[in-house]
Amino acid sequence: SRDIRLAVIPGDGIGTEVVAEGLKVLDAAGIKLETTGYDLGAKRYHASGETLPDAVLEELRGYDAILLGAVGDPSVPPGVLERDLLLKLRFELDHYVNLRPVKLFPGVETPLGGAKPADIDMVVVREGTEGPYAGAGGVLRKGTPHEIATQESLNTAYGVERVVRYAFEKAQSRPRKKLTLVHKTNVLTYAGDLWARVTDLVAPEFPEVTVDYCHVDAASMFFVNQPERFDVVVTDNLFGDILTDIGAAIAGGIGLAASGNVNPDRTAPSMFEPVHGSAPDIAGQGKADPTATILSVAMLLDHLGLAAEAARIEQAVAGDLLDRRGVSAARSTREIGDDIAARVAG
Ligand code: NAD
Ligand code: IPM
Ligand code: MN
C-alpha cells in the first residue's frame, strides 16, 4: 500500500516538543509515511501577518490526515491563532466530530479517590463546527460604559443531527451502549430543545442504545463523583470543550488527553491533536508530557484503518503509564517519547 501522506503542524510552545515525540513513535511503529511540515503559528504570524493562507488550506485538503501540536502564544492577541488558524481548520475541513476519549489507564493516579479504570471509560463526542464557536455576534458602543457584547450559539438541525447520529453509532459499537446528551435545556431553550428533539428523533434507529440526559452543570459534577455514569457523551462545542478538560483531569491530567477532529464523511482530512494547549508556562523546558500527542497519533492510525498499529501504540503507552506508578523522578518530554517508542519497536 502507498505511504500515508501526513501534514504536520507543530504550532506553538510545547506543540513543537510533543509533536516531535508523536512522529518518533509513528516511526518506531514502522508506519510508512510521507510527512510535510507547516510552520503555521505565532512565528509565521509575526513574520508575515499570516495565520492560515488560502493556498496552505487548499494544500492541506490533499493529505490523508493532519497532526497538530497546539497553537496560541502570549505575544499574539487571544483569538487570532485560535480562531483564524485552529478553528478555521476545524470548520473548513468540516471536523464536525471532536472525539475526546476520557479513559483512566491502569496505574494512573486520579484525583478521584478509589476510582478504577472500569469507572472512567467514556468518549465525549463534542460537536466541532457550530455552537458559540461559530463566531456569530458582535459588539456595540465598544469601550464605553454601555458596551454590549453578544456571542451567539449557532445550532442547525443538519449540524446537530449528524453529530448526534455519529454518537449513536459510537455508543452502538461499545459494550455498554449508553449515550448521554449533555446540554442546558432548562435555560438554553431554543438550542437545547433542538438537541433534545434531534436525539429523540434518531434514537429509534438505535434500539439497543440506552439514552440519558444531563444538564451540563450536573454533568460536570457527575464527571467528578460518578464518572461511571458515562459511556458516550454527546454535547455542543463549548460544553464539550469544558467537560473534556474535566475529563482530562479525572483521567490523570491534561498531559494524557488525546483528541481527533474527525470528518466522518471523509470529504477532507481529519486532524489529530492533544486536548491541551501550547502551555507557555513550561514551553521550551522539556517538561511537557508527550503522551496525549502519542495517543492522538494512535487515534490517527485507527482513523486511517491501521487498527493493529494503533493498538500497539496504545499498549505501549499503557505499559509506560503502568511503570510510572510511584516513580517520582520526572522524565523529559524526549525521554518519555524514547521510552514509548522503544516499547512500540520492541
Ligand atoms: P494549556 O493546556 O496550554 O495549559 C494549561 C496547564 O496545563 C498549564 O499549566 C500547562 O503547563 C499544563 N499542561 C498543558 N499541557 C501539558 C503537557 N503536555 N504536559 C504537562 N503539562 C501540561 O492551556 P492554557 O494555559 O489555557 O492555554 C495556553 C495557550 O494555548 C492559549 O493561547 C490557548 O488559547 C492555547 N490553547 C490551544 C489549544 C490547541 O491548540 N488545541 C488548546 C488549548 C489551549
Ligand atoms: C481545545 C482548545 C480550543 C477550543 C481553543 C484553543 C480554540 O481549548 O482544543 O480544546 O476551545 O476548542
Ligand atoms: Mn479546550
Question: How do the helices and strands line up, and which of them pair or pack?
Answer:
Layout: E1 4-11, H1 14-28, E2 33-37, H2 42-48, H3 54-60, E3 65-70, H4 80-92, E4 97-103, E5 121-127, E6 137-140, E7 148-151, H5 157-172, E8 178-183, H6 189-202, E9 210-215, H7 216-225, E10 232-235, H8 237-250, E11 258-262, E12 270-274, H9 291-303, H10 307-323, H11 333-345
Helix pairs in contact: 1-9, 1-11, 5-6, 7-8, 9-10, 10-11
The chain binds nicotinamide-adenine-dinucleotide, 3-isopropylmalic acid and manganese (II) ion (MN).
State the helical fraction. Answer: 40-55%
Q: How many individual helices?
A: 11
Bound molecules: nicotinamide-adenine-dinucleotide, 3-isopropylmalic acid, manganese (II) ion
Calculate the terminal CA-CA distance, rounded to whole Å: 23 Å
Q: What's the order of the H and E elements?
A: EHEHHEHEEEEHEHEHEHEEHHH
CATH superfamily of the largest domain: Isopropylmalate Dehydrogenase
Low-pLDDT sequence parts: none
Q: What is the count of structural domains?
A: 2
**What's the architecture of the largest domain, going by CATH?**
3-Layer(aba) Sandwich
Mean pLDDT: 97
**CATH class annotation of the largest domain:** Alpha Beta
Say how many strands there are: 12
Q: What form results from the Cα inertia axes?
A: globular
CATH topology of the largest domain: Isopropylmalate Dehydrogenase
- Please identify the structural class as seen in this structure: alpha/beta
Q: What profile does the largest beta sheet have?
A: 10 strands, mixed
Trace the largest sheet across and list its strands. Answer: 2-1-3-12-11-4-5-10-8-9
